[in-house]
């Protein structure tokens, strides 16, 4: 198996997605890969209740903090639910070869992965990494 040249990360501004982006940016830097930060647009964005520019600025700051060159980052906003959007990114033109998502911690052992993470692992055409929340890695 060869190292991925393009890593796609699901990002919604949550602590879990920030942890996933930090992890993916560090891996991409080590491998010389590119990172495609994918934000799935839902009803809140369509209603104007969430500012996409804030998410993009924060994502770019996280990647820069990981020491990755800004030219290796692609910001992508696609309409749909996060799992479907990430699967499309892995199947489309110039596909991602690795998908990275965060998860939310739950007190219920069976609930350690969220529905997006579980659905993505079940249907993704490429490997998926699910990163635990910050402070719980390692």
Q: What proportion strand?
A: 15-25%
Strand order of the largest sheet: 3-2-1-4-5
Mean pLDDT: 84
Multimeric state: single chain
The fold-level CATH name is Rossmann fold
Helix/sheet category: alpha/beta
CATH domain class: Alpha Beta
CATH superfamily: HUPs
Runs in which pLDDT lies below 50 for 5 or more consecutive residues are none
Query: N-to-C SSE series?
Result: EHEHHEHEHE
Tally the beta strands: 5
Through-space gap between termini: 24 Å
CATH architecture: 3-Layer(aba) Sandwich
Round the Cα radius of gyration to an integer and report it.
14 Å
Q: What does the overall shape look like? A: globular
| Biggest pleated sheet | 5 strands, parallel
Structure annotation, total helices: 5
- What count of domains describes the coordinates? 1
Helical fraction: 25-40%
Q: What is this structure's SSE topology?
A:
Blueprint: E1 6-10, H1 15-31, E2 34-41, H2 43-46, H3 52-65, E3 73-79, H4 82-91, E4 98-102, H5 115-123, E5 128-131
Parallel strand pairs: 1-2, 1-4, 2-3, 4-5
Helix pairs in contact: 1-3, 4-5
